[in-house]
Amino acid sequence: ELENQLATKSKILDELKQSLAFNGSAEQTPEGLSLRIPELCEMLDSIANQVVQLKTSMQSITEQWRVYDEAYAEVSLKTTRYLYCINQCKPS
Which GO terms describe its molecular function (predicted)? Predict the structure, then answer.
Protein backbone atom coordinates (compact mmCIF):
# COMPACT_ATOMS: atom_id res chain seq x y z
CA GLU A 1 0.00 0.00 0.00
CA LEU A 2 2.87 2.36 0.79
CA GLU A 3 4.32 1.69 -2.65
CA ASN A 4 0.99 2.63 -4.25
CA GLN A 5 0.83 5.83 -2.21
CA LEU A 6 4.41 6.65 -3.17
CA ALA A 7 3.66 6.03 -6.85
CA THR A 8 0.58 8.24 -6.65
CA LYS A 9 2.50 11.03 -4.94
CA SER A 10 5.27 10.71 -7.50
CA LYS A 11 2.78 11.01 -10.33
CA ILE A 12 1.17 14.08 -8.74
CA LEU A 13 4.61 15.63 -8.25
CA ASP A 14 5.49 15.03 -11.91
CA GLU A 15 2.21 16.61 -12.99
CA LEU A 16 2.89 19.63 -10.79
CA LYS A 17 6.39 19.98 -12.22
CA GLN A 18 5.01 19.86 -15.76
CA SER A 19 2.33 22.39 -14.88
CA LEU A 20 4.91 24.69 -13.32
CA ALA A 21 7.16 24.39 -16.36
CA PHE A 22 4.22 25.21 -18.64
CA ASN A 23 3.07 28.16 -16.54
CA GLY A 24 6.59 29.40 -16.02
CA SER A 25 7.45 29.50 -19.70
CA ALA A 26 4.18 31.18 -20.66
CA GLU A 27 4.15 33.90 -18.03
CA GLN A 28 7.71 35.15 -17.67
CA THR A 29 6.82 38.54 -19.11
CA PRO A 30 6.09 41.34 -16.63
CA GLU A 31 2.54 41.50 -17.96
CA GLY A 32 2.05 37.78 -17.43
CA LEU A 33 3.44 37.98 -13.93
CA SER A 34 1.32 40.99 -13.02
CA LEU A 35 -1.79 39.04 -14.02
CA ARG A 36 -0.85 36.33 -11.51
CA ILE A 37 -0.33 38.68 -8.56
CA PRO A 38 -4.04 39.10 -7.71
CA GLU A 39 -4.53 35.35 -8.04
CA LEU A 40 -1.62 34.72 -5.68
CA CYS A 41 -2.94 37.30 -3.20
CA GLU A 42 -6.32 35.58 -3.26
CA MET A 43 -4.66 32.23 -2.64
CA LEU A 44 -2.65 33.73 0.23
CA ASP A 45 -5.82 35.14 1.81
CA SER A 46 -7.53 31.78 1.44
CA ILE A 47 -4.61 30.00 3.10
CA ALA A 48 -4.57 32.56 5.93
CA ASN A 49 -8.29 31.99 6.51
CA GLN A 50 -7.78 28.23 6.52
CA VAL A 51 -4.98 28.60 9.08
CA VAL A 52 -7.26 30.66 11.34
CA GLN A 53 -10.00 28.03 11.03
CA LEU A 54 -7.50 25.28 11.76
CA LYS A 55 -6.20 27.07 14.86
CA THR A 56 -9.75 27.51 16.14
CA SER A 57 -10.54 23.85 15.51
CA MET A 58 -7.32 22.73 17.17
CA GLN A 59 -8.04 24.86 20.25
CA SER A 60 -11.48 23.30 20.53
CA ILE A 61 -10.10 19.79 20.07
CA THR A 62 -7.34 20.43 22.61
CA GLU A 63 -9.92 21.62 25.14
CA GLN A 64 -12.05 18.52 24.52
CA TRP A 65 -9.01 16.27 25.05
CA ARG A 66 -8.18 18.14 28.28
CA VAL A 67 -11.71 17.50 29.58
CA TYR A 68 -11.43 13.85 28.50
CA ASP A 69 -8.07 13.43 30.24
CA GLU A 70 -9.45 14.89 33.48
CA ALA A 71 -12.53 12.64 33.37
CA TYR A 72 -10.39 9.60 32.54
CA ALA A 73 -8.05 10.31 35.45
CA GLU A 74 -11.01 10.65 37.82
CA VAL A 75 -12.63 7.41 36.60
CA SER A 76 -9.31 5.59 36.78
CA LEU A 77 -8.74 6.75 40.36
CA LYS A 78 -12.24 5.73 41.45
CA THR A 79 -11.90 2.36 39.72
CA THR A 80 -8.61 1.74 41.52
CA ARG A 81 -10.19 2.68 44.86
CA TYR A 82 -13.19 0.41 44.28
CA LEU A 83 -10.96 -2.51 43.28
CA TYR A 84 -8.87 -1.94 46.41
CA CYS A 85 -11.98 -1.90 48.59
CA ILE A 86 -13.33 -5.05 46.94
CA ASN A 87 -10.02 -6.84 47.49
CA GLN A 88 -9.87 -5.71 51.14
CA CYS A 89 -13.47 -6.76 51.85
CA LYS A 90 -13.09 -10.32 50.52
CA PRO A 91 -13.45 -12.94 53.21
CA SER A 92 -10.25 -14.83 53.84
Answer: kinesin binding
